[in-house]
Give the backbone structure.
Amino acid sequence: MAQNGSKVTRRQFLTYTLTGVGGFMAATLISPMVNFAIDPVLKKSGAGDKVKVMSLDDITTEPQRVDFKKQTQDAWYEFEETLSAWVYKTESGEIIALSPICTHLGCQVAFAGDPTRPQEFFCPCHLGRYEKDGTNIPGTPPTAPLARYEKEEKDGFLYLGSPISQK
Amino acid sequence: MRFDSQGALRSIAERQYVDTLIVPLAELAFGEDMVRKAESYEVIHAVTVETERQLSGRTMLSPTLSYTDVEAGVELVKDVVAKAESSGFSHVLFIASDVRFKPYDLPILFVPPLALGAMSSDQAHTMVQNFATQVITELSSRWMAT
C-alpha cells in the first residue's frame, strides 16, 4: 500500500530496480559481443589516417606523380598498399591530388601519357582521357571523373588520406 | 586483374576489354644456385605485380610458371600461349630473366636478374618502376599495333 506523499508502491519500486539492474547486466554481457561481431566495420572507419607524401615547395602547376605506402586494413587482414597520386597546384594556389585509377576498369592514368595531348590525363589501356582537373572527356570509355584524395597541408608537407569518388 | 576468383569473374565479364595475359616465368632450383634463382624471381615478381597494378583494367596477371629445365619451359610457354589465345586473349607476354630462352621465338620480355635485397628500398623501388615502365611501353606499343 502506498504511503502518504509517495505514488510508488513497494512492489513497483522492486520491479523498477530489478529491471534496471537486470538491464544493466544484460548490456554488460551483450555489448562486448556486439562490439566483437562488428569489429572489422569499426576498424575500417578508423583507418582514415593521412600519410605524408611530399613537401609543399615541390608542388608546381604541372602534375607530378608521387608514390606512397599506406597501411590498409581489409577486414582482419592488414597489409601495406602502394598508392599513387598526381599532385599539382591551380593558378589560384589550390592543391589538387588526383587518384590515377581510371574510373573505367582501374588502370593507372598518366598526365601527358599521350604525347599529342600534353594537357590531359591518358589511360593506356582503353584510351580513356581526362582533363587536367580530372573531368572525364565524353566519347572516351570512362564515365566518371578521377577520384580526389582527402588532403591536409601541415608543417610544409602535404598529407593524403583516402581517395574520394567525384561521381 | 589478378588470378583470383574476383579477377576471374571480371575477366570473363569484361573479356572485350581484358585481352592481355602477363605471365611471370621463373626458374626453380634447389642447390647452390637457389639464391640466384630466388633473386631473379624477386625481380620478376615485383615487376609483374607493379605492371598489373598500373594496367589492371586490361591485363590479367597469371600465377608464376616455373620450370627446372629450359626445354620443358619452352613447351610450357607454347602451351600457355596457345590455350590463352584460343580463349580470347589477344596478347600474351612472359616476363623472365633467363636468356637461354632468347633463341626460341617466344613472346618474352627479359628483365635483368638484380639482387633487389642488396639495394636500399628507394633504389629497389626505382629499379622496379623502371622495368615496369619498360613492360608497359612494350604492351602499349603492341596494343597500338592492333
About this structure: Chain B has a mean pLDDT of 92. The beta strands of chain B are 20-27, 59-61, 65-67, 91-96, 108-110. The radius of gyration of chain B is 15 Å. Chain B is about 50% helix and 15% strand.
